[in-house]
Amino acid sequence: MQFAVDETNAAGGLLGKQIRLITEDSQMKPDVASRKAIRAIMEDKAQFILQLTSTAVAQALMDVAEKNKVIYTTLDAESDFLTGKNFNKYFFRTCFTTGNRARAYTEFFKTKPWRKFYLMNQDYAFGHAVADDFKKAITKEIPDVKIVGEDYTPFGQKDFGSYISKILASGAEIVFTGNYGVDLQNLIIQGAQMGIKLPVRYATYFLDDDVQLPQIGQAAVGTFVNSTYLPTINTPQNKAFLERWHKKFKDTAHPWPAANLGYSYNGAMFLFAAIKKAKSFDAEAVIKAWEGMEYDSLVGKQIMRACDHQIMMPGPVGEIQAKSRLFSFPFADNPIMIPLDKVAVPLKETGNPRCTGGK
């Protein structure tokens, strides 16, 4: 996000003013996030809130934004209900939801031979949403699919042995998981040690970063990943972005903008473009400008859907290759781009009354 701010400021800022980025740590706690956001609004005169992850934190910040009439944008909180039944007009989302990802993967698997899926997820609201949305989408579109197993594990699961044994015994061809962090790392490394290997593959949400993949190494090869952003997307905008990023960060721990880095930049720049279109920092003006706005982004054309403030964009699905053209470890190259209209959740399924004729 700082990179997005720096580039924008260097080009003259927003509406002739320089952007100031105030950073705070929510500690992944809703009450902490609310307190710090309110302080930033009251004391620092913050006019926009941006946040990366946690649905619980997102819900708290939505309330702060509505009460204080400021725009709040999440870059990575994916629970559908935020733009659905819990919607408020000051909230915008620039990342995929579990429903978007389910539809992207379903379109991808329509063209593939695999039909036996094992669902392996973390045992909390998000993990269950990952499984439920995928089951709903894929069983509707691919009738001969079989869910051959389904398990949920606590956060920080260290030993996946018993679960891996069940996966192996099930005859699964694809292990579908929304796990992230060390849980995803442990699952794949232990799976390889116990015999999960090609042709059995994982389909993941979060195996797209430069933190976990170096640790997992060759055990990740053949795994699929769907992400809001991949640095290997072949659009002119992304190629130019990679050049600018690498020039500045080539000698750092993040020489290329993987995962959060890419979709934080992309989301922030979409917000800045909406402010420019509005020709105002006023929340009501920005809301009006951003609703229905099209934007030529890093991943191609994206649209901010007017009724629920949910981004609509193509869905990249990549296969992790042993050799990457960007990284020294396996990474997903040359992703397939699932079209925007195939990834978007239909209006009638959003749970948002504004999308179905309500107010």
Description:
The protein has 2 domains: about 1-95 and about 235-315, Response regulator (Rossmann fold, 3-Layer(aba) Sandwich); about 100-230 and about 315-345, Response regulator (Rossmann fold), CATH 3.40.50.2300. The chain is about 40% helix and about 20% strand. The protein has 12 helices and 13 strands. Strands 5-4-6-7-8-12-13 form a 7-stranded mixed beta sheet, with helices on both faces. A 3-stranded parallel beta sheet has the order 1-2-3, with helices on both faces. Helix 5 links the parallel strand 4 and strand 5. Helix 1 (about 1-10) crosses helix 10 (about 260-280) and helix 2 (about 30-45) runs parallel beside helix 3 (about 55-70). The longest helix is centred in the C-terminal third of the chain and has 19 residues, at about 260-280. It is globular. It starts with a helix and ends in a 16-residue tail after the last helix.
